[in-house]
Amino acid sequence: MLRLYSQGTMLTRRQPSGWRLFHEERPRMSSRASRLAPTPRAAVCHATAARAPHLTHAPRLALAALDVLFLAATATCLWGALARPALAYVDPSVMTYTIQALAGVAVALSAVLGVVWRRARRWLLRAMHVDENAGKAVEGSVHALDADDAAAHVSADEAARELTLPRKPFAPALSWRTRLILALVCALSLAYCVLFVAPLEVVIPGSSSLSFTLANVWLPLIGLAALVGTAIALASSAARGRAFDVVLALLAAICVCTLLQELFFNGNLPAADGSPVDWGNYDKAHAFSAVGWLAVIAVFLVLAIRRPLASRVASVAACLLIVIAQSVGLGMLGAQYADALSRPVVTEEGLTTVSSKSNVIVFVLDMFDTKDMDQVMATYPEAADELTGFTWYHNSLGSMIPTRYGVPYVVTGHDFDPTEGQFTTNDLESWFSDRNLLDVANEQGYSVGVYSDSVTYGARALEGKTMNVHELAPFFADFLSCARTLGGVGLYRDLPYAFKPTFWFTTDQLNDAVVPTDARSPENTPYVIDDPGMHERFSQPVLTVSDTSEGGAYRVIHCQGSHWPYIMDENGNRVTESQDNTALVSQARGSLDIVEEYIAQLKDLGVYDQSTIVITADHGVWPWNHARLSKTTSPILLVKPAGADSTQPLQTSNVPTGHIDLPATLEWAVGAWDGSAEGEMGSSTTMASSTPVFEVTDEDRPRYFYWNDHDGKHDRYLVEYKVDGDANDFSDWTFTGNQYPVDVEGYN
Q1: Rounded to whole angstroms, how far apart are CA atoms 490 and 505?
Q2: Per-residue confidence band for 40, with pLDDT thresholds at 50, 70 and 90
Q3: Are 503 and 497 in contact (CB under 8 A)?
Q4: What are phi and psi of 424, to 5 degrees?
Q5: Going by C-beta distance under 8 Å and a sequence separation of 6 or more, which residues neighbour residue 585?
Q6: How many CB atoms lie within 10 A of CB 176?
Q7: Of 158, 310, 430, 733, whose CA is between 20 and 30 Å from 551?
Q8: How deeply is 593 buried, as exposed, middle or buried, from its count of CB atoms within 10 A (0-12, 13-18, 19+)?
Q9: In angstroms, rounded to a whole number, what is the distance separating the alpha carbons of residues 95 and 85?
Q10: Which of 460, 434, 457 is nearest to 663 (CA)?
Q11: For residue 605, pLDDT beyond 60
């Protein structure tokens, strides 16, 4: 009987240097034939090595170029699956259903690219007459054994039986240095994606709602990623043998899971606008993300146990590929928002200065509803003690909701024009660029300061109309504060749903933590909404008189008011976040106390009588996430005109007024009101019907309000309501049947 057997085998003469991290320098026969009948070193066949030369300089460059092209193409495919975060204050979500579909296409295309790359590489080697097996262990030619050669038969039988025995996967022991290098690759990749890329993918597109940009936080974040990654790598490298392979695979699995979390599992994350979150509504998303994470981790761990060498290669390759894809995506995102990253910033310049000539001060207490004021007055009767000379207009109707539209209305005096048929980004920006209330104040010789984080759509226009909106001197955020807050943003975004409540954040919290408020001049300090900090500031005599302007001081100051989350008590002290009604009333009282402290200082300086002060809100209560209104929403409106009797206590009026009359009231305050607003404010439709509040009568007066049909992430329509009667009686509200599409950048 004849048996077929290999003529000879080749031993690997040297290990390719690129594999030493995984193999160490330990010779190994790689072919089945070599296990069947090992031959002495003297009998090694060198036919393959002699058949083709080793790679010369030119072929190496050609192969390197091909590999770079493949990596770039793969990274581009993966980047195409990454989402662009939307702006809803700050939105940590990254995916829409459309992008999820594109992600599947990108993954499939990446697999196709892999096949194409391997075939193209083989074709290139053949074209250059280079044998890809040169220097490797390969099987020799098969030949027939002599039937009379008993020794050969016995050797072949023993070798065949050996093949049936279970074999442990080949995984040579690694030195500590090698383990550290492998761990550094995976740990730094993970830290880079979670603690650097993830926070910046929130910060960059969220710059319209943040008081800082990429330039202020990139260095602390890269330092944080380096420290955390290095610490994890050092700890991981202490493991040996199979334990190290498991740890390495776990790091790579988590890195892969964070990318999958961004791409597929974060589609319904709540926006970081402070609105209450019922995490019970995310049970399905919780289960979906948990199953995905467990499945990926299980695959990597099984591979590490059964095929440790392949696991090492797969872990390192997966991490590097994800880093490339994330870096490309981050770079493209930065390029997309390059203009926003260099925009002017609202600073504190002029915040604590007033004039001895005339002052027009507008306090915007966010979401402070008339019914909230009713509760404050019932619980804290002394709340109105400092409001002498004021009139409280109880029948007050707002203009638009939410803050991103309400504050620009109060600042500019412009409103939505229904004849346009839709509400767009250009419309919102034009409110600031067209002639508006700030221009009127400037024309009257007033120094103008606007202090709000909700005017970024008009930041460039405001740069020429205010004293305090301009570019800042460069600064880096405090490392510890940045690490604590933005590091938490990365964890919130990339960890599964089970951990998200722990790291949930609000936009205001980011601003408060990152933006420096100490040891910087007011003109280089960004203004952030921080009511406890504001209360502490104005509890001391900080207002000063400055008469550098011809007319006086015109200020618009935006505070948190009764907006969630409730983090301040009635005395202005910072407290643990809460969401109940008692906390709402306490915070509302504390916010009103900020105004009272300011007023007390005006009185101490002797400039109260010549000051017009308006206390209002950007909008009233916000019945969150409803297509139609279910109850009234009425912003507070209290006004003290200059020259009012400051000895009189707070008065109450029920005339039908509200935001519609703010433009005329403020024009009157700066001395520009002539009784006719027709055409005075360019495209403003409000001014034609606006009247100073103290001239409004009890006559019936239909007023209009535009509700935001918002699905939790996107503004869909402005829904028109007509109010004919009491703004606090929902029976006097009527849906007109008109609704207008919203196409505002970041919210559509």
Answers
A1: 11
A2: very low
A3: no
A4: -120, 175
A5: 372, 375, 376, 379, 570
A6: 11
A7: 430
A8: buried
A9: 8
A10: 434
A11: yes
Lowest mean pLDDT segment, chosen from 173-182, 480-489, 603-612, 618-627: 618-627
Q: Which of 52, 35, 232, 235 is nearest to 135 (CA)?
A: 52
Dihedral in degrees, nearest 10, Cα atoms 218, 219, 221, 224: 170
Q: Would you list the DSSP string of 555-569?
A: EEEEE-TTPSSEEE-
Name the DSSP letter for residue 413. -
DSSP assignment letter at 56: -
Question: Would you tell me the crossing angle of helices 176-192 and 214-237 to the nearest 10 degrees?
Answer: 150
The domains located in the chain, with CATH, are 345-475+516-743 (3.40.720.10)
Strands (E) located in 668-732: 703-710, 715-723
Residue 494 to residue 191: CA distance in whole angstroms: 11
**What is the arithmetic mean of pLDDT over 336-361?**
90
CA dihedral 542→548→551→552, nearest 10 degrees, is 0
Question: At 613, is the secondary structure helix, strand, or coil?
Answer: strand
209 within 8 A of 456, measured Cβ to Cβ: yes
Quote the tokens at residue 32. Answer: 């089945």
Give φ, ψ of 25 to 5 degrees: -95, 80
Rounded-to-integer distance, Cα 141 and Cα 92, Å = 61
Contacts of 289 by beta carbon, 8 Å cutoff, 6+ apart: 261, 265, 496, 497, 498
Q: What does the CA dihedral 270, 274, 275, 278 come to, rounded to 10 degrees?
A: 60
Q: CB count, 10 Å around CB of 29?
A: 14
CB atoms within 10 A of CB 476: 15
Beta-strand ranges (E) seen in 330-415 are 345-346, 353-354, 359-365, 391-393, 396-397
Instruction: Return d(Cα 341, Cα 217) in angstroms, integer.
Output: 12
Query: How many Cα atoms within 13 Å fall on the side-chain side of residue 85?
Result: 32
508 beta partners: none
Longest dimension (CA), the chain: 127
Structure-token pair, residue 667: 């024009």
C-alpha torsion 650→655→658→661, nearest 10: -100
Facing residues of 574 across strands? 568
pLDDT at 518: 61
- Asked if 654 and 400 touch (Cβ cutoff 8 Å), the reply is no
pLDDT tens by residue, 384-393: 999 999 999 9
Segment 46-61, tens digit of pLDDT:
444 444 445 566 666 6
- Within 8 A by CB and 6+ apart from 243, the residues are none
For residue 143, give both structure tokens: 């030949």
Distances (CA, A) of 710 to 405, 716, 717: 13, 6, 7
Give the DSSP H or E segment for 260: helix 241-260
Q: How far apart are the first and last CA of the chain?
A: 80
Contact (CB, 8 A) for 570 and 541:
no
On the 0-12 / 13-18 / 19+ scale of CB atoms within 10 A, 59 is middle
Looking at per-residue pLDDT, the higher value among 712 and 486 belongs to 486
565 prior amide bond cis, ω within 30: yes
The span from the CA of 692 to the CA of 681, in Å, is 15
DSSP 731: G
| Model pTM above 0.90 | no
Q: Which has more confidence, 129 or 672?
A: 672
User: Residue 264: CB partners within 8 Å, gap ≥ 6?
Assistant: 95, 100, 103, 292
User: In this model, does residue 101 exceed pLDDT 60?
Assistant: no
